[in-house]
Specification:
The chain has a single domain, classed as Jelly Rolls (Sandwich), CATH 2.60.120. By secondary structure, the chain is mainly β. Strands 1, 3, 4, 6, 9 and 11 form a six-stranded antiparallel β-sheet that branches. The chain is built from two helices and eleven strands.
Length: 169
């Protein structure tokens, strides 16, 4: 009995070590350390949101404008969606009575696909770009952060497009 328990314990530790040490394959990553190359209401007033560095490694997306929602976008290029289909965001804080969602849009903005569904919770959320869009292969597109709530804000800590492997802890 003791030997069998040790075998199970050893197998469990091996599995845990595999999951803990598994590395993400990244198609794109923003550590949220800079607003450089993000598009906001400064570039296009219809976006109705501003993006500011709230603290090192955290971007604050705030709705500003006549609507009750706003967005910011980043153009990503040549992401292989067959290898890295998962869009993952880490949110540190969401204002009371606010929500966010994250989507992707073709470069011509002909459509917006919601990948990470609407949420008011902080933490890590993700969705599958291929499933949401039907796209495959290498693509260039906009990653779109959306904040809902008049003058409300969401704090983003990390945004990445990755493989489906477990995130290293």
């Amino acid at each position: 009995m003791t030997t069998r328990l040790w075998q199970w314990a050893g197998a469990g530790l091996a599995l845990a070590a595999t999951l803990v040490w598994a590395e993400d394959t990244l198609g794109w990553h923003s550590d949220c350390g800079s607003v450089k190359d993000w598009y906001t209401k400064n570039e296009d007033p219809s976006f109705q949101a501003k993006l500011d560095p709230a603290e090192p490694g955290v971007l604050k997306l705030t709705q500003e404008g006549t609507d009750t929602w706003g967005k910011a976008a980043f153009v990503v290029k040549d992401v292989d969606l067959d290898k890295t289909p998962i869009l993952e965001v880490k949110v540190n804080k969401v204002d009371k009575d606010a929500a966010y969602k994250v989507g992707v849009a073709p470069l011509d903005w002909s459509e917006l696909f919601v990948v990470v569904p609407r949420s008011s919770a902080d933490g890590v959320s993700s969705g599958n770009i291929k499933t949401a869009t039907g796209w495959s292969g290498k693509k260039s597109f906009n990653v779109v952060l959306i904040v809902e709530g008049k003058s409300k804000a969401v704090w983003f800590d990390d945004i990445k497009i990755k493989n489906a492997a477990p995130t290293a802890k």
